[in-house]
Amino acid sequence: MDTPELLASLADWVGTGGLRPLDLAFTQFIHQRTPEQDPLVLLAIALTCERSGRGHVCLDLWGVVRAFAAEDQAAAPDSDWIPAPPALRALMVRFSPQEWAERLAASAAVEDLRQHRPSPSCLLEPQAEGEARPLVLGGIPERPLLYLRRYWLYEQQVLRGIQARLEQPADTLLDAELLRDWLAQLFADDPPDAPPWQRIACALAARAHFAVITGGPGTGKTTTVARLLALLQGLALGCGCLPLSIRLAAPTGKAAARLNEALATSVSRLPYDRLPLGEALRAAIPIEAQTLHRLLGARPDSGRLRYDRRRPLPADVVVVDEASMIDVERMAALLEALRPQARLFLIGDKDQLASVEAGAVLGGLCQRAQAGHYTPQTAAWIERVTGARLPGHLIDPQGRPLDQAIAVLRSSFRFSAQGGIGALARLVKLGESQGETPERSSAGAKDRASDPLPALEHLFQAAQTAPQDSGSIRRILLRNERDPQLDALLRAGYWQGLGPDPSAGTPSGYLAVLQGLRPADNAEPAAFDHWARAVLKAHSAFQLLTPVRQGPWGVEGLNRRIQRLLGQGPDAPLAGAGERLWFEGRPVMVTRNDYALGLMNGDIGIALRAPAGPSSASTASRMGLRVAFLSPQGTSIRWIPATRLQAVETVFAMTVHKSQGSEFTHVALVLPDADTPVLTCELLYTGITRARSSLTLIYCDEAVLRAALHRQIERFSGLALALHRGEQGMPCAPYRL
C-alpha cells in the first residue's frame, strides 16, 4: 500500500465512523509538513489522534496489533475500535509492535524517547533544533507507546511530580508512638470490630508526601479525610509549628459543594474534648473546598493559570476529592503548581468512569491497589501504629514505592454486602453475584466469560426481601419507548420524590415542594431563599441518568419527553414547559465556567418565580424568573436572572458522565435500546453508585445490558508502565480501567 492508497483508505474509515475527520486532517497535515511517506507511520499517526479523542493518552502498538488480529474484530466485546477497511487491517497486523516502533523511530515526525526517564531537574522543554517533532515514541522497548507530543509532556510532568514525592523519604521525624496515640484518640468512638482501613489510610498518608485514598460509595472517604486533616494539623501544632496551609479542591463546582457539606459534618463530629489542643485544632481544620480551576487561579481572559512551576501555590498540603474525574492535563497543571515540599493527597473511587478528556490518572495509579503489594516493612509499620495486621495476600516483598502510598477503603458503611445497591455494584464491578474470596477481591478479578444476566435476575429477586440498609433496587423492562411505565416512574419521582413506590408517604418531590412551599409574592427575601433551598434539596432526591446524549433514550430526547409530560394539560405542574425555553421549575446545569457570575461547570440551579429589584417597586413589577443556585459553601442562595445564563442545559435527565461528583436519593438509570461503545461496566457502576437509597434500572433489550456488562473501558497511558515497572525492568500492561 502506497501513501495515496493509505490516505484513501483512511477517508473510507472516516465514512464508517472509525476515524474522525480531525484524525484524517491531522494525518494529512503531518504528511504535508514533513517528508513522511511511510504508510505505516502515517497510519500510526491517524490512530494516535483517534485514541486521544477516546480518552487515551497514547497509542499502545501492542494493543493495536492484538485488536485487529482478531478474526472477528467487531465481535470483541472489550474493543472500542470500529472495524477497519480490509486494506488497513492487513497493514496493521503485518508488522510486530517492535517493527512498528523501529519504523516510527526512523520518522522525521517522531522523536524516540523510549529511554527517557523523568527527573526533578528536567524541565521537559524541546531540545531539538528547529521545530519540535509532533509525536513522541515513549514507553519502553518491550512496550512501545506513541504519543501526541502535548500528551507526552503532560504525562512526564505528572510522573515527575509524583516520583519526586515518592522519592522523598517517609517522614523520619514522625514519632510512631505519638502517631499511634493520635490515631487511637481519633478512632476511639469506632466499634471494637470496626474495619481498620480508615486508620490504615490515615497512617499511610501521614508519613507520605503523596498518597491516594480510594474506595467505593459509603466506605468513609470524607470521614477519613476529616480525621487525616485533624491528624496532620495536630502533629504540626503539637510540635510548636504554625498550622499547615491546607487547600481542598474538587474537579467541579458540584463536587466541591458536596465536599464542603460532607466535610463540615465530619469535622464537627471529631472528639475535640478528648484531643490535644481542642478548639485550637478545630479552628485549624479547613472545611471550604473550591474547584481545581479556582485553586490554580485560572484566568478567564487568557486561559492561563496564576500558579505554575515558577509561581507555586502557597500551600503545604493539597487534598483533591473526586480525583477519578481529573484528566492528565489538569493533573499535570496541579503538580506543576505545587511547591517541591508540598504534599498531595488524591481521594476518589478508582472504579468510576474516568475523565471525558484524555487520561485516567487515578485509575492508572491504582492499577495494583486492590492487591495491596505492601512490603513487609510497611505492613510492620502499619501494625505498630494502628494495631491492625494486614492479611497475607496484601503483602508483597517486591512492592513498589507507589504501592506503599495507596490506601483502599474496603468496607462499605452505607450498603449491606448481602444485596441491594451494594451487591449490584459489586456484580457490575467484578462480574460476580456472590461473595468473593479475599484473594479474588484483592486482585480485582473480573469474570466476564459467562452470562451475567442470571446473577442479575437473582439480585433483583432477592432485593424484594433484602435488608433495608442495602439500598433498594428495582428494574423496569420496557416494551418500547412509548411504554407508560417510564412516565409513571417520572411522575412519581418528580412529585413523590423518595422511593420508587408512588403510594408511600407524603409527596416530597421537587415539584411538590415547589408548589406547596411557595411564598406569597410580598414575602420577605429570606422566605424565598428558604423556599429555593428546599426546592434544590428536593430536586436532588430523584435524578434520571442516561449514558448517551442523542436519540429517544438520550439526554436530549428524555428532556423533551419530560417537559411534555410535566407541561401539558390543565393541571400540568410545569405549565409551558414544552413550549418555552425558560419556565418555572426548569432545572439547569452550567456547562462552562462563568467567572463573571461566579458559576462553575457542573453547578445546578432551578428557575423560580421570585422578586428582583428594589423592594419599593410594585410586587408585580418585581416578580420574574430567576435561577437559584446554592453558594459554593452550601449555606446561602444565589439568584441569577435567567436571561444572564448562556451556557446551561436542562437536566431533568443528565448523562452519567455529568453526574460524577453528585449523589441522589433515588436514581433511575435508563439504557438505550441499541448497543453503543459508551455502554460499559464502568459506566453502569458509576450510574448505580450515584444512588444513596434507591435505584431503578430501566432497559428495553437484555442484549444491550449484557453487552454493557461484558465491555470494559480501556484507557492506555504510560503512568502505570513507569510507576509499576518491575525490579527486572519487565513491563506491566498499560492501564486498562
UniProtKB/TrEMBL annotation:
Where the record annotates domain RecBCD enzyme subunit RecD N-terminal, the positions are: 17-118
| Complexes and interactors | Heterotrimer of RecB, RecC and RecD. All subunits contribute to DNA-binding.
> Lineage, please?
Bacteria, Pseudomonadati, Pseudomonadota, Gammaproteobacteria, Chromatiales
Q: Which organism is it from?
A: Caldichromatium japonicum
**Per its record, how is this protein called by name?**
RecBCD enzyme subunit RecD
CDD domains given in the database record: DEXSc_RecD-like, SF1_C_RecD
Role: A helicase/nuclease that prepares dsDNA breaks (DSB) for recombinational DNA repair. Binds to DSBs and unwinds DNA via a highly rapid and processive ATP-dependent bidirectional helicase activity. Unwinds dsDNA until it encounters a Chi (crossover hotspot instigator) sequence from the 3' direction. Cuts ssDNA a few nucleotides 3' to the Chi site. The properties and activities of the enzyme are changed at Chi. The Chi-altered holoenzyme produces a long 3'-ssDNA overhang and facilitates RecA-binding to the ssDNA for homologous DNA recombination and repair.
- Single GO MF annotation: ATP binding
Where does the UvrD-like helicase C-terminal domain start and stop, copy by copy? Answer: 651-698
A single Pfam family, by name?
A: UvrD_C_2
Further information: In the RecBCD complex, RecB has a slow 3'-5' helicase, an exonuclease activity and loads RecA onto ssDNA, RecD has a fast 5'-3' helicase activity, while RecC stimulates the ATPase and processivity of the RecB helicase and contributes to recognition of the Chi site.
What gene name is listed for this protein? recD
Might you give the EC number(s) for this enzyme?
5.6.2.3
Please report which protein family the annotation says this sequence is part of.
Belongs to the RecD family.
